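Re: the 175-residue chain
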Amino acid sequence: MKISVIGYAGSGKSSFATKLAIHYNIETTYLDKLHFEPGWVERDKETRNTMIKTILENDKWIIDGSYTSAVIERFEQADQTFFFNFNRLKCLYGALVRRIKYRNKPRRSMTEGNKEKFDFKFMMWILFDGRTKKKREFYRNLVKLYSDKVIVFKNRRQVNCYLKSLGINDFKVKS
C-alpha cells in the first residue's frame, strides 16, 4: 500500500499519518525530516529529492508532507491520497496546540534536535504564505486529476469518522 498525506501546516497530517502507519504496519516518511537538518537548516534540494525518489521505489510507504518536490510522482504512485484542506484558523489553532504540547521538544515528525517552534513567520505561513492562490489552484488541480484516489478532509470530525471506519478510535496520537 502506498499512501500520501498532504495539506496545510497545523492541520494534523503527521498525527494522521502516524495512526495509519500503526494500523497498516508501514513506516512513515515525514518530509519535514528530509527537508530540515538539525538546527532547522534546510537540506540541499537535490539531496532531498534523491531521498524522496528512493522512498518512492519501495513497495509500500506512507509519505507525510506537502512539499511540491516529487508530488506528481507521489500522486501517481499512491494507492490513496489524503488532503487535509482545513481552514486557516483551525490550522493556526492546531499549530498553537502542538507548540504547547511539544514545547522545547522535537516531535516525531521532525529531525532530532529541532525543537518545536512557533514564530511570526510560521504564523504568516499558516495564515497566508502557504495558501497562495497558486498553491490553492495547484491542490485543486491535483485533487481533480486524481479524484478516484483522493479523500479530502475539511475538518477533524471527518478525519475521526474515517479513522473509526478503520477501527482506529481517535485522532490523538500518544507521544
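The radius of gyration is 15 Å.
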